[in-house]
Amino acid sequence: xxxxxxxxxxxxxxxCGELLFAERYVRVRGALVRVFCSPxxxxxxxxxxxxxxxxxxxxxxxxLLLGGVLLGAWLLPHGALWPxxxxxxAPNVPLADDAPPPAASxxxxxxxxxxxxxxxxxxxxxxxxxxxxxxxxxxxRRMPRSDSxxxxxxxxxxxxxxxxNGHCGVDLGGEIWGEHVRAAHDGVVDYVQRGPNPxxxxxxxRIAHHDGTVFTQYFHLAAIARGLERGVAVKGGQxxxxxxxxxxxxxxxxxxxxxSVRATPGGHEKYIDPEPLIALWPLRxxxxxxxxxxxxxxxxxxxxxxxxxxxxxxxGRAGQGAAAAAASPETASPAEDAPAPAEEGTEPxxxxxxxxxxx
Length: 359
What we know:
Elements: E1 3-6, E2 24-29, E3 32-36, H1 39-75, H2 120-129, E4 170-172, E5 180-182, E6 187-193, E7 203-209, E8 214-224, E9 233-234, E10 239-243, E11 255-261, E12 270-272, H3 275-278, E13 283-286, E14 293-296, H4 311-314, H5 318-327
Antiparallel strand pairs: 1-2, 2-3, 4-11, 5-10, 6-7, 6-9, 7-8, 8-10, 8-11, 11-12, 13-14
């Protein structure tokens, strides 16, 4: 839209109709050309055009808003407007007069929350729902292969009472010396023993999980990953060392794996049987033809041997057990139960000192 001055040709003004005798003022709007007699008439026409455009935009905005409201009402139906699109109500089944209201979790009415202090059953259930991995890679799931390798197996010496005064972990692997040992879960390194430590479990790593309420321990390592020190964060499945026979006197190379829980900071630490857990934890399996390893839950579950017989029953089989122990390379070394020494400048990490060096 622009204005020009052109010579008079006898036409009238587009606003007042007055004949033009001096100069004419032209306003071009697309294909429309309008002529005015003065700047005042031209300004009046410009104002009229502006008001017309404003009214048009206002009407368009109102139509758009109304369309949006209707579309939203259709996409988000309301029960009062579209009862056939509402979810059917649950049938109201009256209860018998003497029947108590149902309890959702099996607890008495008015009671809720987890057991306290946590029992071994509740701890195992919580760990089973968490994202853990087996400390040894697949494709074969490694489980204890003899009674002497399971939790609670007979051991001499003063052991933690929850271990039935016996083996406080499980012995895994032994097929491949030097294979990777992996952290079972995200956590923070709590203790590292890099020296030979022949009488206290050899080289080992202890990792704290869930803010120090759960601990996993990995004994008899041939080597420990470089840079793994106390306070270092690790991820589940990360390689922390190599399977070996450090601290092992008479048995084949293997991983002694232990799990303990501590309900409160500074509280008593208690060992739990890890065999039901490793029977179900996912495996990290190498992809065929590749160095990449992925976690899979398709591997079949393991079959736990169960906690070993109590010492009173095991003594009845002492004659058979002695002969088997002499012939089997899987027999555990009996004298590796003293507490591990602390690294210089750090405190000992394991409160259950009677079982940190088991074979």
